[in-house]
Design brief:
The protein has helices at 10-22, 27-42, 57-71, 86-97, 129-139, 186-190, 244-256, 307-316, 328-334, 337-344, 356-363, 367-372, 374-385, 420-433, 438-460, 468-483, and strands at 6-7, 48-53, 75-79, 102-103, 113-117, 144-148, 170-174, 192-196, 210-211, 233-238, 261-266, 281-282, 296-299, 323-325, 350-352, 388-391, 397-399, 405-407. It is of the alpha/beta class. Helix 4 links the parallel strand 3 (75-79) and strand 4 (102-103).
Length: 491
């Protein structure tokens, strides 16, 4: 268990807290130290700080931190809208012993920093009435905001706002990462996320449910004695009339990510050459086309929903090698239970790469249900279809049944443009062809893709204007950086 990258679900987190309490670790005091230390590093004494104290343990963390800051010479005001639990009462006694007072409403003077200790990871229902009004008022304050453990109002498991949630500049979270910090609306509410394990020994941690850890890219490092056949072969089926660009983008991405040979089989029989990437070998799709079993196979980019597309999927499912289904390959699968049965009978590995609406079709729910519990959705897809599943969106998630799920921290709104899913599909199978496992290939490709999007935003001064084709050289550079980090030999 790595407390800086491995994720516990809420019951396991409660189990850890009980174990730490039994071991006499005084986690609340350690959390207060962590909060006060962060403030001291970033704000000079006498800075005006407003500490919002809620009724639970999150409020206790905040109020004990207020005590430390008052002793250090900070101008601290405490907002205590309602009586709290025993931890809050103990902290309140210490605060009052220091001469501190509390106020039930916001002060007129705007603070330099808000410490948000209203509600933590235990919040399970939408805020209402006075709490909702207060949270909205705190959110509107024109000052920096530090959220304690998680921004008040944000669901720990899903990253969704429970009615409303604070928009923090920094979130100082304790013991381990929580999925709500990184997925759905979480990143827009959390700002910079800092994890502090509070010195809790790794031996106390229960088994983790998920992880932020990345696969090792060093397996892709190339020997001098290699040739194009050393780096895998893949085939892409898609590109119906009017949508051929999708299949070509997937093929170009596969080459950009290091695949040795790439075949594209467009349903549009008139497409025989990609003039911008003549390295792609184009062989129009025919029902009797034989895809060698050593080829990794992608089906879906620009596929369409025609009878011909349906026949292509039915022909691809018995393929002996690994199969990645994307876009209309997923939509056809969702609409046909016979095809789903074929999928379950496959001997080769399968990767599904849905966006939330495609995931909703596969699970026969609406998109809102997927977004309401992205972790639950990706795990259910992996269980139901026996596949590696990559669920796209803010905080991309990956799952393989029986293993901890994986969550990506990286991402950029620059990637919210047409063609990026096609790029990702080609990238995944290129890494698969070069020797990574299906789960690791999907994970590494998604992170390289997301990182390249971030680099674009840095270089362009913002997220606007990125096209899928423009991203490819950035992805190649990012992958090479990981395969051969600074100072490492190239071969």
């Amino acid at each position: 268990m790595n407390p800086h990258s491995d994720i516990l679900d809420l019951p396991a987190l409660r189990q850890l807290e009980l174990a730490a309490d039994a071991a006499g670790l005084a986690l609340m005091q350690r959390a207060a130290d962590s909060i006060a230390d962060w403030v001291r590093r970033h704000y000079p004494p006498a800075s005006r700080i407003l500490v919002a104290v809620g009724p639970g343990n999150n409020g206790g963390d905040a109020l004990f931190a207020a005590c430390r800051l008052r002793r250090a010479g900070y101008a601290v005001e405490v907002l205590l809208p309602a009586p709290g639990n025993a931890a809050v009462q103990a902290a309140l006694a210490e605060w009052q012993a220091l001469g501190g007072s509390v106020r039930p409403t916001l002060p007129r003077e705007v603070p330099e920093l808000l410490l948000d200790g209203l509600f933590g990871v235990g919040l399970a229902r939408p805020l209402q009435d006075n709490w909702l009004t207060l949270l909205q008022a705190l959110d509107a304050l024109p000052c920096r905001k530090l959220a304690i453990d998680i921004p008040s109002g944000l669901d720990t498991a899903t990253g969704q706002a429970l009615g409303a949630a604070l928009h923090a500049d920094i979130t100082l979270s304790f013991l381990c990462p929580k999925p709500g910090l990184y997925t759905a609306a979480g990143p827009d509410h959390c700002g910079e996320v800092i994890i502090d394990d509070l010195g809790c020994p790794a031996t106390l941690y229960p088994p983790h449910a998920g992880t932020l850890a990345l696969p090792d890219a060093a397996v892709l490092r190339r020997k001098r004695d290699s040739h194009k056949g050393s780096h895998g072969v893949l085939s892409i089926i898609g590109g119906a009339p009017g949508m051929t660009g999708a299949a070509l983008l997937a093929g170009r991405a596969a080459l950009a990510m290091g695949a040795g040979k790439v075949f594209v089989h467009p349903l549009d029989g008139g497409l025989t050459l990609d003039p911008l990437c003549p390295e792609l070998m184009l062989r129009p799709w025919q029902h009797n086309l034989l895809i060698p079993e050593q080829h990794q196979l992608v089906l879906g980019p620009g596929l369409g929903l025609s009878d011909q597309a349906h026949a292509a999927l039915a022909r691809a499912l018995p393929h002996a090698g690994t199969l990645l289904l994307d876009a209309d390959g997923l939509n056809l699968l969702a609409a046909d239970h016979a095809l789903q049965q074929q999928l379950l009978q496959r001997h080769g590995a399968t990767i599904l790469t849905p966006h939330p609406t495609e995931a909703a079709r596969l699970l026969d729910v609406d998109t809102a249900a997927i977004q309401a519990d992205r972790v639950g959705a990706v795990r259910e897809l992996a269980r139901r279809f026996g596949c590696v599943v990559l669920l796209k969106g803010c905080g991309t998630l990956l799952a393989q049944y029986g293993q901890p799920y994986r969550l990506l921290r990286r991402g950029s709104p620059s990637l919210a443009v047409a063609g990026q899913g096609d790029i990702l599909a080609g990238a995944i199978v290129a890494l698969l062809a070069q020797g990574l496992s299906p789960l690791d290939a999907a994970h590494l490709a998604a992170d390289v893709h997301a990182s390249a999007g971030e680099h674009y935003s840095e270089q362009a001064g913002g997220p606007i204007g990125l096209t899928a084709a423009t991203l490819l050289p950035l992805m190649t550079r990012e992958l090479n950086r990981r395969v051969s980090p600074a100072g490492a030999p190239l071969f």
